[in-house]
Specification:
Shape: globular
Structural class: alpha/beta
Order of helices and strands: EHEHEHEHEHEEH
Strand order of the largest sheet: 3-2-1-4-5-6-7
CATH superfamily of the largest domain: Formyl transferase, N-terminal domain
Distance between the termini: 17 Å
Largest sheet: 7 strands, mixed
Helix content: 25-40%
Number of helices: 6
CATH class of the largest domain: Alpha Beta
Bound molecules: 5-O-phosphono-beta-D-ribofuranosylamine
CATH topology of the largest domain: Rossmann fold
């Protein structure tokens, strides 16, 4: 069973898609145990609260040191018995100690076909602007394992969309977001059912 914590900073549409998949019975081996946001007014927290899912505002700013912040996050994972972390629009760097403890058990969704259009600075509209500037005819979304390098971990699943000459960064973002909402639940299903030998958490 994947006991997931979902981390996000914004509206939470990917979280909503995962939640809907869980609620409909499409992800029987996934349980959403916790939602964490660095942003107290994030939509993702509201969605969690209105669905009775533990929702935590956890911002580095509220802690004296990075270590205190890290410990608060690890403690929340422990309390809710989290064994897998899902990043869904989380705009903060994940502490290397979290990556170490959850090695192979953290995933992220990126709105392009990695390894293209990834890395530092490649987020949000920057990604779609770069895709259009490069005159790509295909873009898409990628779910990948998170390691210490931005957007470089092993790819779990990708899906493509066509880029038409008429696309703007906004229209392309909307197209990609639509497939993200199918891709993320599909990737979690694969992981949950694959039972691949991922390293265990050690709290
Ligand atoms: C998505 O486009 C995702 O690819 C990126 O951040 C956005 C999050 O959107 N990492 P939402 O908060 O899930 O609606």
């Amino acid at each position: 069973m994947l006991r997931i914590a979902v981390l996000g900073s914004g509206r939470g549409s990917n979280f909503q898609a995962i939640l809907s998949a869980v609620q409909s019975g499409a992800l029987p081996k996934v349980r959403i145990c916790l939602v964490i946001s660095n942003n107290s007014s994030a939509g993702i927290l509201e969605i969690a609260r209105s669905n009775g899912i533990p929702a935590l505002h956890l911002s580095q700013k509220a802690f004296a040191t990075e270590e205190d912040f890290l410990q608060a996050m690890l403690e929340a994972f422990r309390v809710h018995d989290v064994n897998f972390v899902v990043l869904a629009g989380y705009m903060k760097r994940v502490h290397p100690e979290v990556i170490r403890r959850f090695r192979g058990r953290i995933v992220n969704i990126h709105p392009a076909l990695l390894p293209k259009f990834g890395g530092q600075g490649m987020y949000g509209h920057h990604v779609h602007e770069a895709v259009i500037a490069a005159r790509e005819t295909v873009s898409g979304a990628t779910v990948h394992i998170v390691d210490e390098e931005y957007d470089r971990g092993p790819i779990v699943l990708q899906r493509t969309v066509e880029v038409s000459p008429a696309d703007t960064p906004e229209t392309l973002a909307a197209k990609v977001l639509t497939i993200e909402h199918e891709l993320y639940p599909d990737a979690l299903r694969l992981i949950a059912e694959g039972e691949t030998p991922r390293s265990q958490t050690s709290h």
